[in-house]
Amino acid sequence: MGVEIKVDDLSKSFGKQLIWGDVSLTIPAGEICVMLGPSGTGKSVFLKTLIGLLKPDKGSILIEGTDIASCSEKELYEIRKLFGVLFQDGAMFGSMNLYDNVAFPLREHTKKSESEIRDIVMEKMDLVGLLGAEDKLPGEISGGMRKRAGLARALVLDPEIVLFDEPDSGLDPVRTSFLNQLIIDLNAQIDATFLIVTHDVNTARTVPDNIGLLYHRHLAMFGPREMLLSSEEPVVRQFLNAQRVGPIGMSEEKDADELEAEKGQELPPLPPIPLQQEPSNGIPRRSQREPGVWCRENGITPPPGSFQENMNMTIGS
Ligand SMILES: Nc1ncnc2c1ncn2[C@@H]1O[C@H](COP(=O)(O)OP(=O)(O)OP(=O)(O)O)[C@@H](O)[C@H]1O
């Protein structure tokens, strides 16, 4: 069913450099969340903090009653078993074939026999569409296949939480679209809690139940997909619509002169909110909400043309 992650008042610095501060959010059990933010805003640092690889300076991260930020090494070891992580490059061992790479966590962390391991590895390889590629070395396959192999490995210990660090980096739009479908299908199948760090606005607009945006050393907004996609808040609006007009500049914030020069420039209207991508078998995920419900419940009129089948999305200005 997945487990909830409750982050409260979290801050992380390296030396005197504050990466982000006062981050509070709840990642609901079984749902898909996307974390966005301009480069260098600390999205990867956030993921590493959630699994206890980095210690925050203050705040708490509650998972099943344990605070990752302050628990003992022994408790952390136990909690980490709940996580599967897909690293950016798949983080495969180059000299091992895919079978051994995927089997690795089972051999390291369980006492399962080789025949039990074989069943699990083949099941996960099947899940990510890689049956038949077990003997290949990571260097012999495409980036998209490497990501899927990394995903199979992230799933072998049946995680309750799966973290994806830029799953779409280096993939073309078609491969990204296939990987997104795989992520949605997997969520429907295993019901774990998913957190995806990405730069891809199209992924953020169509895949998650909830979106967060890190910007300028804080969490600018976190909430249901429809809340952010209908938001007029300048940073959220600019980022989710990939626009140049707004507070975000080439190297993080624009200065006062740049902002002054933009005064009076008309912003393009918000594009329609697309339908959320559904599992390929057409059966809604357990946590999936009806299109438009959040807007209706919160008295927000969605942009014209929202929630229509096969609509053309116009992003960017
Ligand atoms: N171990 C570390 N020690 C010191 N500084 C670090 C460490 N890890 C990350 N940083 C710094 O933290 C900041 C945020 O890095 P991070 O990789 O989390 O950003 P990001 O939002 O994931 O960026 P991108 O989208 O480009 O991948 C950067 O300035 C980086 O140099």
UniProtKB/TrEMBL annotation:
Protein keywords: ATP-binding, Nucleotide-binding, Transport
Family annotation (PROSITE patterns): ABC_TRANSPORTER_1, ABC_TRANSPORTER_2
Record carries keyword Transport: yes
Domain ABC transporter: 5-241
Feature: compositional bias, Polar residues: 307-317
Stretches for region Disordered: 255-317
One MF annotation (Gene Ontology) recorded for this entry: ATP hydrolysis activity
Gene3D superfamilies the UniProt entry points to: P-loop containing nucleotide triphosphate hydrolases
Domain of life where this protein originates: Bacteria
Pfam family, one: ABC_tran
Name assigned to this protein: Phospholipid/cholesterol/gamma-HCH transport system ATP-binding protein
